[in-house]
Amino acid sequence: MIVLTRDQLEQILKTLPEYYPKSLQLDAIIRNRLAGSHVWPGTEIVADKFPDYSVILHRPIKGSHDYLPCPEHNSVTLFCRDISRLEDIVRRKDFVDWSKGVEFFAVSRHDVYPCLWKQSEELENSVENHDSEEPDGIDLGIVHLLNPSYLVKSEVPEGFRLGEIPECYAEQCNREWHYGTPNSLSFFKHILRDKFPASGIFTQDDRLVAYIFSCEGGMFNGYVHPEYRGRGLYQVVNYDLAGKLVALGQPCSWLFVKRWNEPSLNSYRKLGAKKVHPDEFAVAWFEYEPKK
Questions:
Q1: pTM of the model
Q2: Whose CB among 6, 32, 128, 216 lies 3.0–4.6 Å from 287's, allowing a Cys bridge?
């Protein structure tokens, strides 16, 4: 795999709009890298070849002490524009370090995911299946696109304020995150300390009661405290954060909603988010754990 230079990243960025929405994650990662902002520490962007690439990876640098797991394993973001080449590429020794646990974040369910599964079977190692249809599992992610130009704007209700989220709230947000662990606290501290775009709503006594975060151009961990639900706070933070991300040069922001999560699906329907039909593009999380 080739570690891409700044000039090469600029050239690749020009090719990505043709493949939206599949390429949106790498589009945002490359934009951030070129701007020198919101760059995940200890990572690199590589391609199988250049300029006629088939696969681009955003992955941890091997042996880096700066990398922060998100939330547990090494996290890899993958974009593939030629699926016929992926099966050979995943077998390359320089693709990823299969000797360690790795999570392929939100990969294309219909083509990339089966290829990764096949590779894991060939390696005869265990795989945690993140394509469960059970409510307590991790299900197919329905892609939603967000741009303030077509979203329904909501005003902040009286008695609340909209603002940035200081690092002192990292422990609360990590605790309330569905996937949060003690190891992921450093993840939240980093994105808050380095001012990754986020949106929070506070009470008059500075209690954080609603928020949503971003990482690598996408939005995640939207949460409203149960005591404050039903007041439109979730709509406010989503609209606000989508605007911040589009202002960075992204064509839109996006997020993934599990297909069993009807409350969130309804919320984004009301907000006016554009839902990508699952037959066109949907995502799944592929977590690989080598046998001990």
A1: 0.91
A2: 128
